[in-house]
Design a protein that fits this description.
The protein contains 7 helices and 3 strands; from the N terminus they run βαααβααααβ. The chain has helices spanning 22-49, 56-73, 76-84, 92-125, 130-133, 136-153, 155-163; strands at 9-12, 89-91, 170-171. Strands 2-1-3 form a 3-stranded mixed sheet. It is flat, with a radius of gyration of 20 Å.
Length: 184
């Protein structure tokens, strides 16, 4: 018989030191979150509407902005809610969903930056062949890989962590990751 616990909720203890200044942290975090949303949406809308910006580098920048919105949506809403409540709780499914979103956001950003560096390499080192190498089809394929591969690879640590026995419901962080509450 295994020594494991059926956990339905996790308690986040990463905010224990902030009890005195919770309202200040909330306002600063809310301003940061709204600024991230505003800047990314402005960049996305500008690139979509301005036909002169429909070049590979700007399309990759647009992808980074979409990923920025995706990643912050996985962290900030729960964080802001936790700053407003006395007890920071997250459900079992919500914890693994948050871990998946954060992991895939980081991986997608790394792959998109890699694609952008490839684009710049071709533009600098092969300028005469740039339009033959980096076609619209190539851009689509690179973006597809930069998004689909992390979304698939992110399933591996989450699905493996779900199978492991849990040692409790205490997480000493602000957010969930695949090692939170898992017995080692």
């Amino acid at each position: 018989m295994e020594n494991s616990t059926q956990v339905k909720f996790f308690y986040l203890f990463g905010l224990q030191e902030t009890f005195n200044n919770k309202s200040v942290y909330f306002i600063l975090s809310l301003i940061t979150y709204l600024l991230i949303i505003t800047v990314n949406l402005t960049l996305i809308i500008t690139i979509i509407q301005e036909k002169g910006l429909h070049e590979p580098m700007y399309i990759f920048l647009c992808s980074l902005s979409v990923n920025g919105l995706y990643g912050t949506a996985g962290f900030y809403p729960k964080f802001l809610l936790d700053l407003q409540s006395d007890v920071q709780v997250i459900s079992y499914g919500g914890c693994f969903t948050q871990a998946y979103v954060i992991y895939t956001s980081v991986l997608c950003e790394i792959y998109t930056l890699t694609v952008m560096s490839y684009d710049r390499y071709v533009a600098i080192c092969r300028p005469l062949l740039y339009h033959n190498i980096v076609t619209s089809l190539t851009v689509r394929k690179l973006l597809l890989v930069a998004w689909c591969y992390p979304l698939f690879i992110g399933l591996i640590p989450v699905s493996l962590a779900v199978r492991l026995p849990l040692c409790g419901s205490r997480i000493d962080k602000l957010f969930c990751d695949c090692q939170s509450g898992v017995c080692r």
